[in-house]
Structure prediction request, 577 residues.
Amino acid sequence: MSPPLLQLDGVQTHIGSYHILHGVDLAVPAGQVTMLLGRNGAGKTTTLRTIMGLWRASAGEVSFDGRPIHRHATPDIAQLGIAYVPESMGIFGDLAVRENLLLAARGARRLADIDTQRLEWIFGLFPALKKFWLYPAGKLSGGQKQMLAIARAIVEPRRLLLIDEPSKGLAPAIVANLIAALRELKATQTTVLLVEQNFAMARALGDTVAVMDDGRVVHAGAMKQLVEDEALQQRLLGLSLGAHQ
Amino acid sequence: MSTAAVPKAAFDGLPLALVPLLALGALPLVGSPSTWLTLTVAGLAMGMIVFVTASGLTLVFGLMDVLNFGHGVFIAFGAFVATTVFAGMADWTSVDSLARNLVAVFAAMLAAMALAGAIGWGFERVMVRPVYGQHLKQILITMGGMIIGEELIKVIWGPEQRPLALPEALRGSILIGDAAISKYRVLAVAIGAVVLVAMLWALNRTKIGLLVRAGVQDREMVESLGYRIRRLFVGVFVVGSALAGLGGVMWGLFQQNVIPQLGTQVNVLIFIVIIIGGLGSTLGCFVGALLVGLLTNYTGFVAPVFTAFASIALMVAVLLWRPQGLYPVANR
Prediction:
């Protein structure tokens, strides 16, 4: 297994008086897609937000490439090369699609400064973005907004992508497109930590998996192992893969 | 990249169209075309001045979610700085030379913007920063700041009303037919237009403007993209305060006198304007200010007893039509 690019050791997070994460241990290997699974309220979103510094870890350590980052401010964490796609997608609705992308390209002052080849690659993954280039992002459909959110995360090369439930609320056909695009992204050896409730999507993309329950990681291992062990699926997720095929 | 066949969202011109509609609708009520023209230019000038003073506040509210009830103090400081600059440049304001007069006016404006911007920087650090995200405390502490500012003005310039006479060449009117157009109001319209164009250019054509517009919608996401929004907050607060200082000079010259309570007086009007325009929207603030300026002047002529009520009635009507203002900002 590759050495972890991101590692969480005993991470605890409080939101107000609520104790959400109770000591999360998680390793995200470089160049692989790690799926973070678990029922609603298990702490998956809180884990991603804690990694990004949007919520402070009250105990434990988050390290990226061997360096602790849990005391860093969110912009500093982003500048290390970590991109975040929140569950809400975080699209700037009043800005045009092209302005959303320009904003995400930190190194570009103008659109002309963005790497044209990379932009064409993104248009290849998400053709709708080219079509609606000048359109306010708020007017896009849910699926198109999700594509824009992911495109924003990859408009410049990033070392780690944190993506929170990209398939949520999307039609199956759109989810299939999204899986195809993420597979292509995976082929570039980008490290991804992907929160998902859709097990079919998790199975299609994941190299490794971590399952959370009640603010802790209760299982971590190869995705293949979880896919092949229906009893483990039942125990961890309360589902069987057969029902999702 | 070719964008010829790309769909582009239509611009919502309806709120903007309200300005000429209001002006044309007032014509039969005013009766005389020359009086109507005089009132319209006066209304546009007042609207431009209110826009300049309010534009900073709408950005501060939109980006930082800060209810700055102390914004008026920057306006008052700006106006009082102008009295000092004019006193020191009496030779430049009393001579009947437009060029020399304009130098004095612009010197006063630059000094007012510099001082108001500097006070704004200190105000953000000392008073606003500890209460980010706490609206009730923001209201209380910024109102406290306003009171302190007013008292400081009384200490520095005295409690009395101070005259701020127009420079010689800016006095009087230009006659167009029977209509008398005040020279200063023409200048005010021109300055307001320059500020509007500069703000729209900065907001729409620069990366910093893009960051401000994005920050108005979702501060957390801007930070997640790797930008330090706190620095942007400080910059916007300073620019907003400087614009208020500029507006204070324009307002003082419009009234031709200044009082320490100027900020408190103008505060209500500018809050009405930014609510009408849509909190955080520069274009909305501009349209709202023009509507308020025109309506105040027409009402003052047609039905003076309702003048004080006109702006509030306009705000109620706009909010019934568009509850988030004329140009609502997404995600707010």
About this structure: The mean pLDDT of chain B is 91. The two ends of chain B are 32 Å apart (CA to CA). The first helix of chain B runs from residue 14 to 30. The interface with chain A takes residues 1, 3, 6-9, 207, 210-211, 213-214, 216-218, 220-229, 329-331 of chain B (CB under 8 Å).
